[in-house]
Amino acid sequence: MPATDLPSITDDSQQRLQRLSAIAQQLLERARAAGADQCEVTCNEDAGLAVNVRMGEVETVEATRDRGIGVTVYFGKCKGSASTADLREDSLAATVAQACAIARHTEEDPDAGLADAALMATALREFDAWHPAAFDADRAIALALECEAAGREVDARIGNSDGASVNANASLSVYANSHGFLGGERSTSYSTGCALIAGEGEGMQRDGWYSVALAQGDLEAPGAIGRKAAQRALARLEPRALPTGQVPVLFSAEMARSLIASFVNAVSGGALYRRASFLLDSAGTRVFPDWFAIEENPFLPRGFRSAAFDAEGVATRRSMLVEDGIVRRYVLGSYSARKLGLQSTGNAGGVHNLTVRANAGDLASMLCGMGRGLLVTELMGQGVNAITGDYSRGAAGFWVENGEIAHPVDGITIAGNLKDMFAAIEAVGSDVDARSHIRTGSILVGKMTVAGR
For 342, phi and psi rounded to 5 degrees? Predict the structure, then answer.
């Protein structure tokens, strides 16, 4: 296979999954023979191609092919882990031996061990995530050049570029444990993106756009991506500052994801059992307005995080995370669940396809409903305190008057407390940004502090 090619359209993924499954079973048997009470094995294969161009020239072409084998063993409540990328028999044997040696020298942890056997998934299926395509470097370069050129041609004020990129990836994984569970997954992903610079000197503004999908045919056209990147950069020219004050803040859909991610982090098991969350003991309490809801659906066709089982083999399930504004449950794997005296929610490894229920229309109608305030289209910095919920981040976007965009703004900071912000959400738009496993439209927070000049 040429070094710059992904696997060809000839699909041997099932045979490769069978090979990884056989290796996993072999490692489980070795661990049992070494005296381990419990064992789990992960096997992964990944192949990728990444191309970057800038100002009409190719900057980088990178092909990757990675493999990883991980073994975790438990001797009672003592845990040991080891990994390798070498599939030779002696290397696999040494990996199991090393994991066992580590376990014999670690302290007991009363919450250590596999997830409960009764929670293992039994209905294993796929969710239309595997779409391999012949994708060589020459074609990827042509697409990236087309994307950037389309953007640079939009307006003479697009004088520079941060470049365009095209990526393709294919991934196979197998998880097995000594409960008798064995499951395999396969997925592909493709992306095209472009970032352009408008204006000159100190007045330059940068913005971009990208498209990502599990199937190549679901991507936006390269030219459309480049043109949208240019339009976004041009719209930011001649920004103004804002006076400090309290105003409504509308987070665009791609920015609103971060608010939901902050909530998920706060109700995740690791933060809760460490007492490092501003939402301790929040299950069963109202955190959002009474109309607000977040649903987790692991079974969404072509969902970015669709799966029949989590990273521990536990069966996933479709359920409400938030309903009627009330936190219905936490986000738990088996270890954090035991720490909290609860049961795994099938979220070892993270959440699966969250959808925030909309109660409003598209972005234009959201702007009209807000009337006057700030539309945030970019966030900077990591100013979120997970323990207190205090929120302070650099931002840029647009000032809105009479329901319409008046002018761009930058050099501002938006601040509040996430608990107060969640309670002050007035609307969620229908303009869902589907480029993530967190699917939400724009979110309007009724009042935040905006620090400008």
Answer: -120, -170
Burial string for 107-134 (b: 16+ CB within 10 Å, else e) reads eeeeebbbbeeebbbeeeeebebbbbbe
94 bridge partner residues: none
End-to-end CA distance of the chain: 58
Best CA proximity match to 68, nearest among 45, 91, 101: 45
pTM above 0.70, yes or no: yes
Token look-up 């002050």 returns: 424
* H helix runs in 294-427, sequence order: 334-340, 363-370, 418-423
Domain 13-233 has CATH 3.30.2290.10: yes
438-439 and 354-356 beta bridge pairing: parallel
Percent of the residues in the chain that have a pLDDT greater than 90, as a whole number: 94
Q: Tell me: pLDDT of 54 over 90.
A: yes
**Region for 212 from its dihedrals, namely left if φ exceeds 0, alpha if ψ lies in -120 to 50, beta otherwise:** beta
Domain spans in the chain, listed from the N-terminal domain onward: 13-233, 239-453
- Going by C-beta distance under 8 Å and a sequence separation of 6 or more, which residues neighbour residue 10? none
